[in-house]
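Hey team,

Sharing the LysR family transcriptional regulator run so nobody has to redo it. Sequence (312 residues) first:
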Amino acid sequence: MKLRFTVMQLDLNLLTTLDALLTEGSVMGAAERLHLSSPAVSRSLGRIRRLTGDDILVRTGRFMTPTPYALAVREQVSGLIRQANAVLAPSRDLDLAALERTFTLQCHDALTTAVAPLLLASIAAQAPGVRLRFLTETAVDTDDLRHGRVDLEIGATTPELPEVRTETVGHDRLVVALRADHPCVGRLDLESYAAQPHLLVSRRGRLSDPVDEMLASHGLRRRVLAAVGTTAAALHVVSRGDALLTVQDVMCRPLIAAFGLTTEPLPEPLGLPSPPIVCNWHQRYDTDPGHAWLRAQARDVLRTILAAAEAP
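Structure output:
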């Protein structure tokens, strides 16, 4: 037998009262359990009787006895209360050992190279059932965060969406990557920097960036040979020629080392700001325990990498 509450009639307070009545077996006991007055519980019992068409509790001498209908629905009512509590007061406990989930992260290839080894090791040690997908940045802006196709985006920019949350984890610095035997090693000033051929990393294929604006403010102009879609491809080209590549120092170090390159400080007169490292996610995940844990892992790894770079 099922309760006959309609959507319009359903009142969670009535279910709570009914559960207390069936548990305590009396109006007074239910009132004490719910911290209500006996008249208030009596009124609720009257409403329950009208809705169900059943007396629920009937007096037998000094006591009240549940009706057959009440006995039939007692477990169902108790289960509904437990389900409602689970929905309205969800547990935020996270069992990492039992967590089975796939998270999708999006960042450029240099960030993936720097972050992935430490992040994967940390996650494998804590939550072996968790898997990661690292996606590259696309040539155009997307709504992947909004539509849940990406869980966490790591980069230097923030999508212009009001529902996207952003946390700045730290700041990197810009350096110039070049061959170890390049003629400019050890003597790269503003004029020699502008005089050399350059590569740009641009997912959209842009052939200019803020460096060109700063050079123009000093009356200088550089020659950009090409725009390359990934940092790894650009560094490979740099390792085979005379071109310079202006990149983030810390996050590009693994790739710079892999190609046997060296770095020079960016000429100080350019005055370019240190690029931020930000994590972006959709607000739907603000209180999600698993996602909060993922964000904490990514934050810790990024800060570890930045701190190690500053160590003497």
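The longest strand covers residues 164-171.

Ping me if you want the raw files.
A.
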